[in-house]
Design a protein that fits this description.
Order of helices and strands: EHHHHHEEEEHEEEEEHHEHHHEEEHEEHH
Radius of gyration: 27 Å
Number of helices: 14
Strand order of the largest sheet: 2-6-7-1-5-4-3
Distance between the termini: 56 Å
Largest sheet: 7 strands, antiparallel
Shape: globular
Strand content: 15-25%
Helix content: 40-55%
Structural class: alpha+beta
CATH class of the largest domain: Alpha Beta
């Protein structure tokens, strides 16, 4: 195997027992400075590159022979390549040779380059610099980097080593350390309940030890992943899940704290605001009171708890699904497009008011369907499988009537409709159709057609399972809007 060939890997997180944090904080501060320095340099070089007339022509004209190669040559000319930023990071490292290793510096340069690349490809409008308040991470490139792990100890260079805690009786961690080889080490810093803690993430080669049994690959499961729900349909199971239903309702508290922070900041910096209350333009100096800092820490803790609860909920739901089936099909969704505001201005016919242009940004942030999809795909890769995505340009599961083969576009408010005189729930029926898709030819990369014969054969059994699920939802009073 080639030394740079991609191999399957997983992450084992352990806590580092660091009592003297002075060196560690200095270590993080230096690498954050290197990241910010590379970020500034990348932004300047990207600006010069984009101002080049030849580069502008190459970007606009996609028919130029050897276009990609010429664009890459332009990047080299302006110093805008990943490895040229590695050289920049090496220059900055000379000031801190006794503290940080070259691998960690180059990884920071790579992160900065990838962040600025999102601006070049219009995936982001701006980038953020690392501040002293951010929870950041640093990592090496191999098990031989200055940041490494051996025999239960975390090593940073030659002079500093720290114990790494493995909880007594943690069979999963013990099995992972015993059976897997180390690829590289990542050190993360997190503020939890006002206290800074450090975690060692060991990126190990191979697949993680089994925690639960996997279902059969012969049972095909169709998923319809929505903004806040996911419908699961197979020949044995039909269920409409709420995504992360147990997440604490922290929005009201976060809004209250944010308003208090704004009042405090205005009181401490009156010269930074205009008479109408808007912020002055230009570079400003801000003063933050002790109350403001306490409120900021409290709000950060609320965000942290919500994010941790969200991820834990998605992991549990993914495990439940994989225990039932490992052949899972879902629609290809563009969640980024759902976040954008609508460009059309429309008027409500009932009250004559303009309709809101905001779409699903808040719901996507609260329920994170894209994260759930990524978690499910990651877990399938552990057993050599992957999440199958249908070709949505040819299959619109929510519009299809399997009895007639017609496609009928429905308004989002329509949650139930009739098929062959029987009422079906929109999300569950869409998952039913998705689970009965097929490849039209050997050259098809994604399922791009519906198997109408199998739909007709399984529809009666699906209705029986759907009735049981709708009865369960009515009894529990959950997701009432989705079944009405």
């Amino acid at each position: 195997m080639h030394r740079y060939e991609t191999t399957r890997s997983f992450v084992l997180t352990l806590e580092a027992d660091i009592k003297d944090c002075e060196f560690i904080e200095k270590y993080f501060r230096i690498l954050d400075q290197i990241y910010n320095g590379c970020l500034d340099t990348a932004l300047k070089r990207l600006h010069r590159l984009q101002m080049d007339p030849e580069y502008q022509m190459l970007v606009k004209n996609k028919s130029v022979p050897g276009r990609n190669k010429k664009i890459h040559q332009k990047q080299i000319e302006y110093g805008y390549t990943e490895y040229q930023f590695h050289e920049k990071a090496a220059e900055m490292k000379h000031h801190f040779s006794d503290t940080v290793g070259i691998d960690e510096c180059q990884k920071q340069a790579t992160k900065a380059f990838r962040a600025v690349e999102k601006i070049r490809f219009h995936e982001a409008d701006r980038v953020r610099h690392h501040s002293v308040y951010d929870d950041t991470s640093v990592e090496g490139k191999s098990k031989n980097s200055a940041l490494n792990y051996r025999n239960g100890l975390l090593y940073i260079g030659r002079k500093h080593k720290y114990e790494v805690t493995v909880k007594p009786g943690d069979a999963y961690a013990e099995e992972a350390l015993r059976s897997s080889r180390l690829k590289y080490v990542r050190l993360t810093r997190k503020t939890i309940r006002g206290k800074t803690r450090y975690f060692v993430q060991l990126v190990l080669r191979g697949i993680p030890p089994k925690k639960h049994e996997y279902g059969s690959e012969e049972t095909v499961t169709g998923l319809d992943i929505g903004v806040s729900t996911v419908a699961e349909v197979s020949s044995e199971h039909v269920q409409l899940h709420a995504l992360a239903p147990e997440i604490p309702e922290t929005d009201a508290e976060i809004r209250r704290i944010s308003r208090a922070m704004d009042r405090s900041r205005r009181a401490s910096n009156p010269s930074n605001y205009k008479d109408d209350g808007s912020i002055l333009r230009g570079k400003l100096k801000w003063k933050y009171s002790g109350r403001y800092r306490k409120l900021r820490a409290k709000r950060r803790e609320l965000y942290r708890k919500r994010a941790a609860s969200l991820k834990e909920s998605h992991e549990k739901l993914a495990n439940e699904m994989l225990e039932r089936s490992t052949c899972i099909i879902c629609e290809t969704m563009n969640y980024r497009a759902l976040q954008k505001r609508s460009k059309k201005t429309s008027v409500n016919q009932k009250n004559g008011r303009y309709n809101r242009k905001s779409r699903f940004g808040k719901a996507l942030a609260n329920h994170a369907p894209s994260m759930f999809e990524a978690i499910l795909d990651r877990k399938l890769h552990y057993i050599g499988k992957e999440l199958i995505h249908t070709d949505t340009s040819k299959i619109c599961a929510s519009q299809i009537n399997h009895a007639t083969g017609e496609k009928v576009k429905k308004d989002l408010s329509v949650r139930t409709f009739e098929i062959e005189g029987i009422m079906v729930q929109r999300d569950l029926y869409s998952a039913f159709i998705t689970g009965h898709t097929a490849y039209s030819s050997k050259d098809s990369e994604k399922p791009d057609t519906v198997d109408y014969e199998s739909c007709a054969a399984d529809f009666e059994h699906y209705i029986v399972l759907q009735k049981k699920e709708l009865k369960r939802l009515q009894e529990t009073g959950k997701l009432s809007w989705y079944i009405s």
